[in-house]
Every structure is written in C-alpha cells, then in structure tokens.
Amino acid sequence: MLDLYPKVLAGPPRPSRILTPRDLQRKSGFERYEIPGGGVLMVEVSPGDRITVINAEGGQRAELLAAGTDGRIDAGVIGARAGGTAEGLKALIAAGGPGMARLRAGLTRRGIDLSRARAVELFDSATQARAEAAFTAERAGVLIVAAPGQPMSPHDQTTLTPLILTIQRADPAWTALHDLPEPLADPVQDLRVASATARSYFVKAGDYIQIIDVDGRQCTDFQCFAARKLDRGLQRPLDVTTSRTLMGQAYSMPGLHAKYYDQDFEPLVEVIHDTVGRHDAFAMACTSKYYDDIGYPGHVNCSDNFNKALVPHGVEPRAGWMAVNLFFNTAIDAHGVLISDEPWSRPGDYVLLRALTDLVCVNSACPDDTSPANGWYLSDIHVRTYAGQEKFSRAIAWRPTPDAEPKMTKETAFHPETSMRTRDMVEYRGYWLPNTFAAAGPLEEYWACRERAAVIDLSPLRKWEVTGPDAEALMQWVLTRDVKKLAVGQVVYSAMCYPHGGMIDDGTLFRLGRDNFRWIGGDDYGGTWIREQAEKLGLKVMVRSSTDQLHNIAVQGPKSREILSRIIWTAPAQPTLAELGWFRFAVARLNSHSGVPLVVSRTGYTGELGFEIFCHPRDAVEVYRAVMAAGEPEAIRPMGLAALDMVRIEAGLIFAGYDFSDQTDPFEAGIGFTVPLKSKPDDFIGREALIRRKESPSRKFVGLEIDAATTVGHGDCIHIGRAQVGVVCSATRSPLLGRQIALARLDVTHAEPGTAVEIGKLDGQQKRLPATVVPLSHYDPKKTRPQS
Known about the structure:
There is one protein chain. By secondary structure, this protein is α+β, with helices and mostly antiparallel strands. The termini are far apart. Strands 9, 11, 13, 14, 18, 20, 21 and 22 form an eight-stranded mixed beta sheet that branches. It has a seven-stranded mixed beta sheet with strand order 33-34-35-36-32-26-37. The protein has a six-stranded antiparallel β-barrel with strand order 38-41-40-39-42-43. α1 crosses α2 (100-109). A hairpin with a 2-residue loop joins β29 (503-513) and β30. The mean pLDDT is 94. It is 16% helix and 30% strand.
C-alpha cells in the first residue's frame, strides 16, 4: 500500500543555513569591543556577566581596573585581585589622544580616582596570539581595559597591538536597555523613532545629526527642509535627483561628494561619518500604493508616517515622499532593474550629518516586512544631535575581516603637511590621502617624479612584524619567493597565494635579523592569513601589526638620492645612502646620530630611482619638512594618487583590485618572476596549483597602446571581432608617450605583441577603440632607472 503514495522528505522543514558574523545576531546579549594598542576602553558590567580579554595578535600587555557603582576601585567587581600599579593606564590617559578627554570625563562623572589605583595585569611580551583571560562580574560597576606600551622605533619590532574584550551578558534584558553605542559627544537631543513610525525634529545650522540603526538591518527614510523657507511658505524638501546630479554619485558619502541639496541648489546637509557605505537615493519612501499593488492594502508605510510627523511644521501631505533611504541596500543591475536585498548595517551602525542651515528633519523606521529590505525583522531607529562646536573628522568605516570591529577613516601622520597643500583628499584603505595638489596638479606632479623628485604619502600600506625562531620557516611557507636567500638588510618583492593559486596580496618582505621580518602589503588580511598559517602549524612565531606605528613616504625620481643624501645619516655598520643597493634598506637617522630614527629602503612604486622612509607617526611632520626643504633646490613636489597611477601604469606595476584578485594567479598578474618553481627548494602554499596553472595558462597580462583619445577604464571589454577576449585592468593617458595606454588581461591565443584588438565602449559593440598588444612595461621595461 505504501507504494501508492509519493515519496516525501521525512520530518519537519529545516531552517535555512545562513552564516553571518556574530554581531549580526540580534538580542544575543553578546558584545565585542576592540581596544587598539595604546588605547583604553570603559564599559559597564552587571552581576553574572562573563568577561573575556583576548590578546588578539600576541605580545600585548593588558591592565584591567574595575570600580563599583559608588566609584570605589575594587577588582572584586569582576572577581579578581589587583596586583599592578596601573601606571600604563595612567600614562595613556595623561598623554591624551583620541577618546581620552571623554574617558576622563566619564571617570570624573562616576567619582573614580586613579591616583592610588591598582590594576589587574594580564599578559606580557611573550604571550601568544589569541591567549585569553576570563572573569565573571560579581557586582554592578564599570570595567576599564587598557593596552599600554611605548611607541615603536622604526628599526624595532615592539609594536602595540589590539586587545579584544567580549562580554556575554547574564541578563539579555540588559542589552535591550543599553542597546545604543556611546554618544559621540554630549547629545543635544536623544530621540527614539519607534518601529514602523516616523518622527520630526528641528536642528540648528552647524549642528550634527547622528542616525543610528539600533538592532541592525533596519532602514530609515530621511528628509529635511530649510526651516527659513518653511517660515516663508516655501516647501523645498531635500531632492535626491538634484543631489545625485551635483555630486556625481549614486548617494553622497564623506569627502568631496558629501552634500545633499534641495531643488534650489541650496545645500542642506553634509555627510560626515558613514559606518555602512551602502544606501539608496533612487527609490521613494514606501507608499500605500506600493503595498496595495503587492497585495497588502492598508499596510502602514513611510510616506503616510512622514505626513503625520510633519503636520506640526505645516508641511502639506504627499502620496509619496522622495527621501534619502539610509541603510537601504539597492543597486541597478546590468539589465537596468532596481534590485534590493538585506541591509549591510549592523547593530549600532550610523550616519552622521551636519546641518548646513536651520532644518526641519524627519526620520522613519521603515515598516516593510514584505521583503528583505529590513532583514525580515522590524526594529527602531535612534537619532542624536550634537552641538556645532563639536569637532568630527570626515570618516568612512571599513572592516578588515567580516568579524572585525569597524574602523573609521584616519588621517596619516603626514596629513598636517599634505592638507596644507591640498583639500582634494580621497579615502584609501582607511586613510585620507591626497589625490592631487592644488599648486601643481597631476601632470606637473607626474613630470616632477619623472624628471626631478616627488614625495608620496604611502602610510596606508599594511606593516606586520614577524618574529620568533620559526619566522623564516613561516615566511618560506606563505610567500612564493625563496625567503632563505634573503640576507639581513635585504628586501624582496613577493606574491602571497591561496592553495588554489589565486593571489591574496603582493608586497615586500624586509629581513631585519635572523628571526626578524617585516611584511609590507596592501591588505590587512595578509597579516591575518600569515598568523592563521602559523597557528595551524604550531610554529613559534608572532605576527603583529605595526601599521599605526610606522608611517612612510616615498621619495621618487632621478634626483631622489641627491636630495636624501643631504639629510640621511647612517652609522658605520650601515650602508650610506649612496651605497644602498636596489631592494636594500638601512637603519638611519634624520640629519645626525641624534636625529629622528628612520628606516630607509631603496624601493618604490613608480619605475624611477627612489627610496621609502619609515618613521614613527610622532616624527612624521619633522621628516616631511626636512625632505621638502632638502629638495627645494631641485623643485621637489608632493605627489598624489592620480599622478602615482600614471607612473605605475607606465611602469607596468600592478594594483590590487584592478590588476589582480583572488581569482588571478601571479602569472596572470604579470609577476611570474616572483614564483621560482624550479629553484625554490621548499614547498609553499599554492605551489601545486601554480605548477598546473603555469603549464596550462589561459590568460596573460599585457600592455596595450590605444589609438584613440577616448577615456578607457577598468573593466572595459576587449574584443577581436564579436568575441570578447579580455578585459582592461588599469588605464591612463601617458604624458611621456602622448597616448592612452592600458594594462590588460587577454586570452593567451591573442596575447602576442603586435596583435590588433578593439576595446568596447557603450554596450561593447556600438563603439570600439583600436588597440595593439605591447609588452607589459610601457616605460623602462628593463628597470634600468630604479637600478641606476
């Protein structure tokens, strides 16, 4: 009889398996904080809270100080005993720095006196990565966690690294009552926009508006009016079409393209902070018609909520409101369809705006529970406003890994000097860097580098200190180069690959000693990957970030050696600047034996003779001024990223995200010379895959000369006839050659020099630009200039 019935899957349905970072799990009672090296954090604790302090990268001391609700310092609050003097914590607070003023105010407000404080001391310089210490709170109070230490000298490797603090709340209701991040300053207004409602408020010109996604993945529509126009009966709301047109962006972001306007072209707000980076300025706020048309008549909607909230301000109702749809994750696909998905925002993510005139504002907490627009979970939005005298630097948040804490865009230590010369700054890898300089412009900067000398801020390069008895073995395993051949004082350029042969990063490896290396690459994940491999193998080695302890400028051009010889001093055991060979470095000082400590390497990213100077951030301004003064007779110029792109493309030097990715192997990226498969005696990650890829190549990295002045860009298709045979990776107009050039990846069938191809514009078929395949380096292919 059973054969009469169809076969079915046994049991109830299983939930979808969706993997997300832990901080996206709402109302879990789990909190995670990152305390940077040299930083301090204060949080409230309650009885039963499980507290864990993790030494993220190893070798970082920690000091913990706990106090009860009465302000009395007592390690018993977290069930511990204090034995240290808390001198590291006191020194950090006394030195000032980011966040310390608010920390001091918080201590004063709680009546906490540090003068005789004693701390719980954890870890030491030999502590391995991910070591942890756990506590359980016994009473209510506050916990202060410090990551103390001294500034690192450029030739030293005693870097400061982060601590991770996690708290599993005993009572999940505590999280519900404390679900907001700490205010950025003392709020003027604290407003909650309840789920599926809207709320209006007034903001003075110059004040700041922080719009917070409380639980994560909750969208909010934002609209505002110039209050003085409303007083005159003029209803001119923020207009996203006007704003997109004037800013040239799909939505405004911190930096040069940060403002939103009304239809009179009056700027209303400027975006100062954005911790998400994905919003919508195309679609309207949801309307009753939208829900009617999809089968949900009478559904609450943002437009009707706006109408109700704006009644006190005399604003006439509308069937549908144009708005900036913050946290909405929308895009326009290749077929012109507006698509949406769950927001990128996490609990506590926010956008900070600055009012450019007196404003009447309104925010909704979107009620859409019919689509993924709010992550299938409706929650609140919170709004805080701050006085205009507060100072907030423009910043965009980024996360090195999905589980990492968001990091706001920072200024490099050379910023005080570069910002005096330009306001054209762009965000690059978490830092603001000059794009062009006002006094010259990219073309003059380019010629300064090619004919004289130029100075480039490259501080965002990621630096990692790799130390310990197994350091050489580790780097031999994770890099494609033969690290055993690397002498102390030498530098080597290498690729780093996944097991499938795709590239993680490229970079340079400095050998500071027998067991001491410094990896410098473009991506934070490179260092994380190196550490993960060390842990898998159980190697005795530490891998610690020193990016914030070492900032660097490149001095490039045919006059660079002459200029730096005037200001670089080296001890007898170190090579002089004149003696310093290509891909070598020297421990040095500025001007004399008692000057600022430096590391100077003969490396660069321009195809010219050049050097890089590494110093501690505290000395950066002095170093920059010394270089500019020494180069004044040669008319040295500061150089931005726009000109740097020109010179590196001419020289055939690759850039992550444009010329290679994890789907590209070193051979396909034009750096096959970094993979010595025949001469390297040891195995390394990706070796078997790279042997297979080298024996059966499908794509080749080549140069193109383009017989058209039309702009060519990354991603443009390359054709022979109707068939696409490749793609443009990087392109520029070469001032030296007087024509457009490109770096491209082609099918090996059509990659021989002299092959005629066409670059597709528009839809790839209607407009074509003739081009010819040429060797990869358009400028000095034998690298005689950097070796000179």
